[in-house]
Design goal:
2 copies of one chain form a homodimer. By secondary structure, chain A is of the alpha+beta class. In chain A, about 45% of the residues lie in helices and about 15% in strands. Chain A is built from 12 helices and 11 strands. Chain A has helices at about 5-20, 25-40, 50-55, 85-105, 120-130, 180-190, 210-215, 225-240, 270, 275-290, 305-315, 320-330; strands at about 1-5, 70-75, 75-80, 105-115, 130-140, 160-165, 170-175, 200, 205, 260-270, 320. Chain A has a 7-stranded mixed sheet with strand order 2-3-4-10-5-6-7, with helices on both faces. In chain A, strand 2 and strand 3 form a beta hairpin. Chain A is globular and about 55 Å long.
Chain lengths: ~325, ~325
């Protein structure tokens, strides 16, 4: 089943408005969810929306809270997310980092006390659309065993790096587990094996069976010890810069996950480079990576599939799960 | 065979001074190499030193060149490394980023036209010692096939993230290949299998055989497609911010690798946090990650082994390869 972008945005807007968001905030929040589905990140688009509404109803997310600036040091600011909507808070923080970068070449907002930012890539695309190189990351609840342990003590702390390119922005949006929890669910639901080992089964054997990894909770960090280390330093940097919680302080129950720490950095590309030169440099890099060589013309740059999916979904409609679509219609009724 | 730190520094200093470095620069350059060996990063300490001298003799590295500031935009500066010594250039760039962060909360130096920075972790430890959170990365020659290709088109672009902690800084220093080229050589020399698959053999099968991976040149990025994507965006960001070369423009012969692009970012922790509070926050995070749970008290934080090795090597002497030690003595004679 497919729906148009405007149908999708419209129904999300109506639910959000009736849930208590102002019209302006409901419009932006609906767009963040609709854009995720439009771009093929279904797990953090429509499919995540009912759970988002639940977190408002159970008090995890405060619909009225807007982020507040606590302190500024030159090009670095610290903001309090006040447990508001995580995606609106993150969008605000990246916008502010971009503003700072216009003045200072680089800008950074460290955001404490916020909620799940949904699709992290949103804030990378936002930076790239504004002509800025964007880097941002979030901590999460403990959902990943660090290398050497079997119980989840670190987060899979998604990291986003985005580079503007007029022919198609290059946007990396990756959790530090080899597969996100949402990806494991999707593989299990489709009855497919993971393409590479994604974690351990309950016997401690590496496996491509998503269900076995969900059962053990032993997801693999990317690069084994390397992703584990990256998760630790990103959590440290996020908690220290924002003054907010570290992963160990975040409730381990996904329904209660709140009080996250995030960092948004923007580098103003228009300060340092002529737009035409920057576009050519970026195109050359992408072209060299993608060049077909012999039989392997299968190399994609980060964000390439997103754009392909976006074009298809805007032309043909956005695929929706009928059960979730009906659930959201009931929320809007 | 083990030598004292002062013996090691002394001989490196003498070779560098006779190679044309000023006394002050020879002292710092020798310390960067000696510190790497002291900390157990032998591949980028003494073992790399003869090759470094060769790059001076063959004109890749200009001993007289000091980096020059080309432009400043607030907290972001662009510097030209002028093909000087890569480790001295990188140390200078991180020092400058730290200075900027004292004024602006965050500071960034993008450095073009530089040489191999040797041990990337040096500049992370430097930031942490100065009380700053440091993030830096470099591009490299093409030494890694991107996901979907079999020929090296991207770099393994080492990434460093460092967080100050008085009880022991947390410093991640990782190449984006699962194993660095140096690590493959070390495993092969010791006749050991890699602990996890590090690449493909010439038949296209994943393997733990270092020699087979060296033969195929098909190293694996960390996290497969994820590390491949990270390599691409870091190369883009480095080339665009510095105005320097991208990986595709760097000579593919390791003996001729030059003209690299690097980015150094510092966040001034003393701006945002009381020192005692920051130390406690960092300790709590590290303690929660390391907590023994059942049989697995094997979790290390990034940098922990470095400190353990540093203490042992300072107490017992630094292990050196006799053949390389003699080679360096001949250079000094």
């Amino acid at each position: 089943m497919r729906v148009s972008y405007s149908e999708l945005h419209d129904i999300l807007f109506r639910v959000l408005a009736r849930t208590g968001f102002t019209r302006e905030r409901a419009t932006r929040c609906a767009a963040l969810f609709a854009d995720a589905s439009r771009d093929g990140v279904y797990s953090h688009g429509l499919n995540r929306f009912p759970q988002f509404i639940t977190t408002i109803r159970n008090g995890v997310v405060d619909v009225d809270a807007v982020p507040r600036c606590l302190a500024r040091w030159g090009a670095l600011e610290r903001w309090d997310g006040r447990r508001g909507a995580g995606n609106l808070n993150a969008q605000h923080a990246m916008a502010r980092a971009i503003d700072l970068s216009r003045d200072q070449g680089i800008g950074c907002v460290a955001l404490a006390n916020t909620n799940h930012w949904m699709r992290g890539g949103s804030y990378g695309w936002q930076a790239a659309e504004a002509g800025a190189i964007g880097i941002c990351w979030t901590n999460t609840l403990p959902n990943l065993p660090p290398w050497g342990a079997t119980d989840p003590r670190v987060g899979n702390n998604p990291l986003v790096v985005a580079v503007p390119r007029p022919q198609g922005h290059v946007v990396l949006d990756m959790a530090l587990s080899q597969f996100s929890v949402g990806a494991l669910v999707a593989y299990r639901t489709r009855g497919e094996a993971l393409p590479v080992a994604g974690g351990y089964d309950t016997e401690g054997r590496l496996t491509c069976d998503a269900a076995a990894i969900e059962a053990s909770g032993r997801l693999l960090p990317i690069g084994f010890w390397k992703g584990s280390g990256l998760s630790i330093v990103l959590d440290l940097a996020g908690a220290l810069l924002s003054g907010g919680n570290a992963t160990w302080q975040v409730p381990a129950d996904p329904r209660k996950e709140t009080g996250l720490s995030q960092v948004f950095v923007a580098f103003d590309l228009s300060s340092v480079a002529d737009a035409h030169v920057a576009a050519r440099v970026a195109d050359q890099i992408v072209d060299h990576v993608r060049q077909p060589s012999g039989s392997d013309d299968t190399v994609k740059y980060p964000g390439q599939r997103t754009l392909e999916t976006r074009r298809r979904n805007l032309a043909e409609g956005i695929p929706v799960e009928p059960s979730i679509w009906h659930q959201v219609q009931e929320l809007a009724a």
